[in-house]
Automatic annotation (TrEMBL):
Species the sequence originates in: Chelatococcus asaccharovorans
InterPro entries: MmgE/PrpD_sf (IPR036148), MmgE/PrpD_sf_1 (IPR042183), MmgE/PrpD_sf_2 (IPR042188), MmgE_PrpD (IPR005656), MmgE_PrpD_C (IPR045337), MmgE_PrpD_N (IPR045336)
Domain of life of the organism encoding this protein: Bacteria
Protein name: 2-methylcitrate dehydratase PrpD
SUPFAM superfamilies: 2-methylcitrate dehydratase PrpD
GO molecular function terms noted in the UniProt entry: lyase activity
Annotated ranges, domain MmgE/PrpD N-terminal: 12-247
Record-stated family: Belongs to the PrpD family.
Domain MmgE/PrpD C-terminal as annotated: residue spans: 271-440
């Protein structure tokens, strides 16, 4: 329920987000946000080369675009503000390589970074302003998710799209300096734009969810800035957002008191696949090493997972590379077969590999009560060899890249370099990396955005 100070739920979110500041954070949390920008830029560069991003951008050009004011990442040109956010947001999520957050069970940075870079470029904002805006959106999204999940996610909503739009809109409002009253209306506008179902996981529409969210967050903020109004109780009302999407109205999140960027942080991905596959992939890669890549004698594979792993993943034989990214059997088989899981394993040649198909066919999934309920999709993999009675086993309770097992800065930088390779020059990639790592000192982010074209 809303407090006496804030007569509506949106009023509470608007008041805090309008003054959110990284000045209240420890230095390591600010560094983490900059890493989120760097990682999202990296996966947007690589995702910009996929069909989903190409189709979205091509259609926008076919139907006519406005003034070219914002950079299209990896495409060598600019577009109007909403088109840039749509294309870049779609690219950021195209490979499922973007970061996760455990309470959100979703991808906070793809939508926040894509909307903020486009809007920030148009308004020539400083690096510190864009970091403040990211903080506002992140805290709202994760603070609400901590109360609403897993029930919200289990209802079938793609949280990146449906709840992510609320925080992203607040972040856009913060960036352009809207007063709390206008922010409140922007949140109501965003609530009526929200949509996005998990049934579309493993298709181009999954990536589109992130693009639509980045676009709509800017649109809602700009509409409110022009005086467009929404219902005062669009979030908590009888027919409002929370009751319709979640079936309940959460308590007001304690914004600014227990920062989620510190408490839950971010999960950065070493593999371009669905988050629930990652601990199992870690185990499979370890076992591949023990086998020296020789999978010919494997007779049976058992993967033990937490029940939540099944909420996201697709079963059966994947018919394309997008389905393969959210298929546990495929990700395990490919990791065992090739000893790694990167973009090369998400080609049709890899998907149609005969040994991968054989390994998939002998992989059994089992729900395990022995794995912790920690939100990190823990998994264990047992590999049985012909003529052997004992299995080779590996278990990870949290994947590489999660807060318990963070990737090193060196590995994060390597990921950026790999994603940028062949999309922008090595000189631009290095300059962009150094720009982001010193983002709070930059007076205007325009140069960064233009490097990424």
């Amino acid at each position: 329920m809303a407090s006496e100070k804030h007569s509506t739920f949106a009023g509470h979110l608007a008041d805090w987000s309008s003054r959110a500041s990284i000045g209240e954070l420890p230095s390591e949390a600010v560094t983490l946000i900059k890493r989120a920008f760097l990682d999202t830029i990296a996966v947007t560069l690589s995702g910009s080369q996929l069909d989903s991003s190409r189709i979205v951008l091509g259609l926008s050009e076919d139907i006519g675009a406005g003034d070219p004011v914002a950079s299209i990442v990896g495409r060598g040109r600019k577009a109007d503000l909403l088109t840039a956010a749509l294309a870049n947001g779609t690219a950021a999520h195209a490979e499922l390589f973007d970061d996760n957050n455990e309470p959100m069970i979703s991808h906070p940075s793809a939508v926040l970074v894509s909307s903020l870079l486009a809007l920030g470029q148009k308004h020539k904002v400083s690096g510190r302003e864009i970091l403040n805006a990211y903080l506002a959106g992140f805290e709202i999204n994760v603070g609400l998710s901590r109360q609403l999940n897993p029930g919200y996610y289990e209802r079938g909503w793609h949280v990146t799209r449906t709840l992510g739009l609320i925080g992203a809109t607040a972040s856009c409002c913060r960036l352009i300096g809207l007063p709390p009253d206008a922010v409140r209306h922007a949140l109501g506008i965003a609530a009526t734009m929200a949509s996005g179902m998990r049934q579309n996981f493993g298709t181009m529409a999954m990536a589109l969810h992130a693009g639509l969210t980045a676009r709509d967050a800017i649109h809602a903020a700009l509409l409110a800035g022009k005086g467009f109004r929404s219902d005062d109780e669009a979030l908590e009302g009888r027919y409002g957002y929370f009751n319709l999407f979640a079936g309940t109205v959460p308590d007001l999140p304690p914004l600014g008191k227990d920062y989620e960027i510190v408490r839950s942080g971010l999960i950065f991905k070493p593999y371009p696949s669905g988050a629930p596959t990652h601990a199992a992939v870690d185990a499979a890669i370890e076992l591949s090493g023990k086998l020296n890549g020789d999978t010919g004698k494997i007779s049976k594979i058992i993967c033990h997972v937490h029940p939540h792993n099944f909420m996201t993943l697709r079963e059966g034989v994947p018919r394309d590379t997008l389905r393969a990214r959210v298929n546990m059997q495929y990700c395990i088989a490919a990791s065992l077969r090739f000893g790694r899981l990167d973009s090369d394993q998400f080609t049709m040649a890899a998907v149609e590999d005969q040994e991968v198909a054989r390994l998939m066919a002998i992989t059994e999934m089992r729900v395990s009560d022995a794995l912790p309920d920690n939100g990190f999709f823990p998994a264990a993999v047992d590999v049985f060899l012909e003529g052997e009675t004992e299995a080779l086993s590996a278990r990870y309770d949290a994947p590489l890249g999660s807060p318990p097992r963070p990737m090193s800065p060196e590995r994060m930088n390597q990921k950026f370099t790999r994603c940028a390779d062949g999309v922008i020059s090595s000189d631009k990639a290095e300059a962009a990396m150094q720009f982001v790592l010193a983002l709070e000192t930059k007076s205007d982010i325009t140069a960064l955005c233009e490097m990424l074209e």
